[in-house]
Amino acid sequence: DGEERVLVNGSAADPQSASFHYSQRISAPRFAPDGQRLAYALDGVHVIELDSGEDQHLLVNQLNNNDIDFIFPEELYYPEAWSPDSSRLLVSIAYFEGGSLGVLQPGGAEGLVRFEAQGSLCCQAAWAPDSASVLVASPYAGIVTPGLWAYDAASGAESVLLDASDPDGGFHFVGWPLVSDEALYAFYASSGSLPDGEV
C-alpha cells in the first residue's frame, strides 16, 4: 500500500558502549521466502510477523558481564537463512572461540535444535530444497576442518558426505554447496598435503 512502517528502531543504541555489539546493534535482517516474517539480530534473534507487527525475541545472547569493564560472550545468536518453505530459520551460534549452527522453528515447541557437529562448524551453509536438511561445507584447514556435511533440520543429526581426509593421506576441500534438480553442486579441490593458506 506504499505506507512506510518502522519495524525496529535502533536510534537509542550507543556505539561506544561495551555492550553495543552484543545487545544494542541491529543486524542480519532476513526475510522469509513467503514474505510473512522478518528475522533480525538484536541481543539474539528476533522474528517479526509482518502482518501483525508482533516481535518475538526467540533467542537471547548469553553474556557473562560480572566484570564491569569486560563483557565475555558465552553464546551469541544471528539469523542466517530461512528454509525454502519459510518454516525454519538457520541460526549461527558464536562462541568466544569457534561457532556452530542450529535451527529454530518459530512457533514450534522444540526451541533451538543444535547441529551435532564434532567441533566448530564453518563456513558455508545451504538449505536443501525440501527444507528437511542443511548442507555445510568448509574449504579451509586450520581451526576448522575441511569437508562437507548434512544436518537433519528436525534432530540436528550429522551425516558426513565428504570427510576432510582419506586413508591415502589426501585432503578434500568443499565450498559453497547447492542442491538443485536433485543434484549436489559445490566447488571442490583436493591436495596431497595440508596447504599453507587457501586452496
Q: Choose one word for the global shape.
A: globular
Number of helices: 1
What portion of the residues fall into strands of 2 or more residues? over 45%
Termini gap: 49 Å
**Which H/E pattern describes the elements?**
HEEEEEEEEEEEEEEE
Helix content: under 10%
Number of strands: 15
Roughly how many Å is the radius of gyration? 19 Å
* SS content category: mainly beta
Please, what is the average pLDDT? 86
Side-by-side strand order of the widest sheet: 5-6-7-8-9
**Low-confidence segments:** none
- Mind summarizing the main beta sheet? 5 strands, antiparallel
Provide key terms for this protein.
199 residues, mainly beta, five-stranded antiparallel β-sheet, 1 helix
Show the helix and strand layout.
Layout: H1 20-24, E1 27-31, E2 37-41, E3 44-49, E4 55-60, E5 62-64, E6 72-82, E7 89-94, E8 99-104, E9 113-114, E10 124-127, E11 133-138, E12 147-152, E13 158-162, E14 171-180, E15 183-191
Antiparallel strand pairs: 1-2, 2-3, 3-4, 5-6, 6-7, 7-8, 8-9, 10-11, 11-12, 12-13, 14-15
